[in-house]
Amino acid sequence: MAGMIDLTAAARMYLNPDNPNQIWINIGFIQRNAQRYPAYEPFLAPYVSQDQFNQLMAVLCKEFEDPPFDGAGGPMCAYICCMSTFCICFCPLLYVWRKAKLFNERVLNAIENNGKHIGVNATFLVSEIAMPNYDPARGNWVDSKGQPLLIRQGNKRRGYGYVPGGPPLGANLILNLPAPVSWPPTMMTVNTMQPPGAITTVQPGRGAGPFCSSCGTEIGEANFCASCGAPAMPPPAYGY
Fold first, then answer.
1. What is the layout of strands, in order, in the sheet containing 131-132?
2. In the chain, which residue ranges form alpha helices assigned H by DSSP?
3. Each residue's pLDDT tens digit, 87-109
């Protein structure tokens, strides 16, 4: 079912333009097999260690082993059933809404409790509405590689297109950092021409690599290409 769902926003980290202390990490949707988990990025190091990040990802993976829906058809079927009875039979829609609500609350509690345990101010939010940004002065939702978040706009008659907007739809791990971060961040990589452990910096889009095996887009350390959704590399070592 994941192939029917737009996952171009998943496995990416975004700065909230309305709160420069807040990083949104999108992992996809609450249907089965509709998640993409990003790799750790070094810009987080002053605030969140790789071990802390991995623990938060482990919590998400565990919770999403039992998602509320098997596919996008679950909520849609309930909606169609409700509309076909002129809203007289609202039980299916109410059931779906409650099922999603309970799951979201469960994940929220798991993330916040784990965050307190490991010393990270983290929360969880499922975003259901994304709005286009018509005010350039406000700033766009931009990921850690400098790519703007694009949302689908339009209709069947006039056609569809993608415009900058936000927030990222679906399930988001939100990190509340103690200080604003420069965005997009300077990426830190190991320089193979120097002794082991030496660190050098490169700007996003300038050698941050690797590249998508399908379309060639540079995607950094993400597991899936944000442009076409193709796998970029094997899953992280912790099995996500």
1. 131-132, 159-166, 150-155
2. 50-63, 73-84, 91-118
3. 555 566 777 888 889 999 999 99
Query: How many CB atoms neighbour CB 225 within 10 A?
Result: 22
Residue range 152-166, pLDDT digits in tens? 888 888 888 889 999
Report the predicted TM-score, pTM, of the whole model to 2 decimal places. 0.72
What is the DSSP annotation of 4-50? GS--TTTTEEEEETTEEEEEEEEEE-SBTT-B--PPP-GGGTTTS-H
Q: Give, for 194, the enclosing helix (H) or strand (E).
A: none
> Position of tokens 């309930």?
78
- For the record, the structure tokens of 212 come out as 């998508």
Distance CA 174, CA 176 (A): 6
